[in-house]
Amino acid sequence: MSSLLKKHQEFKKSVATQQVFSKPVVNHGTPNLKRSGPIPESLAPMNRHTLSILYSIINHLKHIQRPQTIEDIQKFTRTVVDQALESQLRINDKPVYDIKSKEDLLELLKIRVHSGGLAVKELKDSYIDLTNIIEELKQEAKILTIDNKDGTPRVLFYNKMPARLGVKEEFKQVWLELKVPDETALLFEMERAGLKQMEMEKRKY
User: Fold this and answer.
1) Is it the case that residue 200 has pLDDT exceeding 50?
2) Which of 197, 116, 202, 101 is nearest to 155 (CA)?
3) Spatial strand order in the sheet of 153-158
4) What is the torsional sign of CA 156, 162, 168, 171?
5) Which of 4, 33, 137, 185 has its CA 20 to 30 A from that of 19?
6) CA 135 to CA 119: how far, in whole Å?
7) Sign of torsion, CA 3 6 12 14?
8) Contacts of 79 (CB under 8 A, 6+ apart)
9) What does pTM read for this prediction?
10) Which of 58, 50, 56 is nearest to 84 (CA)?
11) Collapsing DSSP states into helix, strand and coil, what is residue 158?
12) What is the per-residue pLDDT across 45-58, written as a single tens digit (0 to 9) for each?
């Protein structure tokens, strides 16, 4: 009995001498969402009115095709160009390709002749009447195009062989009289001639 009492006293003594650790407390309160400083005006969202003015200014710059000062733009818009709008104009004032004439576009396509075509969407910011210039270059046989389903140009290529070669009327007549067989008959004729279908790689522009 005295042995049990002795062990009980030793246990109480060991518990009393152990180090006590406090339980960590997780703070579930609302975090402090206050910003350390104001948002720069160039990064602040613009309202619909400001976006409308910006759109008008960009179209105006495309139309006149020459540099404009802030004062010129203020006269055109009849409004004060604030810092936020001015910063957006400085961001958007450089197109991907600085194309200002038909000659500029043709020269760019010549440079890219070995690197593939040029997507029309990459020229949308240029200061030219893109639709008419492309049509003129096509009529002059200086460029080739891949068109969308609606007939609008999608990709432009420089035409390395712009000269139109004359074809005799007898060859034109033979060409018109040739009839392409249907797909089944065509495959049969190709197999009989030892020819295979060409696998075309789909390319995205």
Assistant:
1) no
2) 116
3) 118-119, 153-158, 143-147
4) negative
5) 4
6) 15
7) negative
8) 53
9) 0.42
10) 50
11) strand
12) 556 777 787 778 77
Confidence of residue 99 (pLDDT cuts 50, 70, 90): confident
Report the distance separating Cα 121 and Cα 134, nearest Å: 13
User: For the chain, what is the mean pLDDT?
Assistant: 74
Position of tokens 């969308």?
148
CB atoms within 10 A of CB 133: 20
CA distance 86 to 116: 37
Pick from 65, 77, 152, 153: which is nearest to 109 by CA? 153
> Encoding tokens for residue 133?
């210039």
* CA angle at 49 for the pair 38 and 90, rounded to the nearest 5°: 60
Identify the residue with better confidence: 94 or 191. Answer: 191
Render pLDDT for 126-139 as a digit per residue (tens, 0 to 9).
Answer: 767 888 999 999 99
